[in-house]
Amino acid sequence: IEEIKSAIELSGIKISNIVVNPLASGAAVLTNSEMNDDRLVIDIGGGTTDVLAINDGAISFVGVLPVGGNQFTTDIANTFNSSFDEAEKIKFKHASANITINSQKNKIPITDNNGNINKIPIFEICQLARERSRELAKLIAINLTDNSIDQTSYSKILITGGGSLLPGITEIFESVLLAKTINATPTDIETNENTYTNLSAFHSSAAGLIKWSLNQ
């Protein structure tokens, strides 16, 4: 943290406060009343998945798992011997935790590291995403259990972050965590000048930092 602060300050930016990432995401997606209730927030980022448990308005648990959206991309890259950038494009365009009839019938081109263009069924991309989603949900469940957190005691679990945009991941999480799970996006940010809307789950951390700052 000190090294990050030093680097930012050397670039000419003044740091007013440091906020742990899942708390920032929670501030973005939870209403004021929800912040004083019992809520579980899961932020699926690029390199990590952050977990925040709030009970009666107090933080009862903060956890970080070293698995995020990048691992979904790496699964595709390793399986089909493609570059990370190529796999990332394929993930955003075709990956889903849902297995549909169309995904079983249709094929897409993917360029491997040797420059060869191969046709692969979309089904195989979705299967990778589905298995990684299930594995991530199981890791979260284990992490919560190890820290004496019972996710089934929460009325709902909110998932956010760029990784939560994967179609079908909410249903996978709900089936593994055995608790109502919903996709959460940042609530509107109101400043003295504008109201910022149309924010997606991808913006949760940044939006939460802004809301945190405004509330201070």
List strands and helices in order, with pairings:
Blueprint: H1 2-10, H2 21-29, H3 32-35, E1 39-44, E2 49-55, E3 58-65, H4 69-80, H5 84-94, H6 101-105, E4 107-111, E5 117-121, H7 122-146, E6 157-160, H8 169-177, E7 181-183, E8 189-190, E9 195-196, H9 204-215
Parallel strand pairs: 1-6, 6-7
Antiparallel strand pairs: 1-2, 2-3, 4-5, 8-9
Helix pairs in contact: 2-9, 4-5, 4-7, 7-8
Distance between the termini: 21 Å
Structural class of the secondary elements? alpha/beta
Globally, the shape reads globular
Strand order in the largest sheet = 3-2-1-6-7
Share of helical residues: 40-55%
Number of β-strand runs: 9
Q: Largest sheet, if any?
A: 5 strands, mixed
Percent of residues in β-strands: 15-25%
Structure report:
This protein is α/β, with parallel strands linked by helices and 216 residues long. Helices cover 44% and strands 19% of the residues. The protein is built from nine helices and nine strands. The strands form three sheets. It has a five-stranded mixed β-sheet with strand order 3-2-1-6-7, with helices on both faces. Helix 4 packs across helix 7. The protein is globular, with a radius of gyration of 19 Å. 33% of the residues are buried. The mean pLDDT is 91.
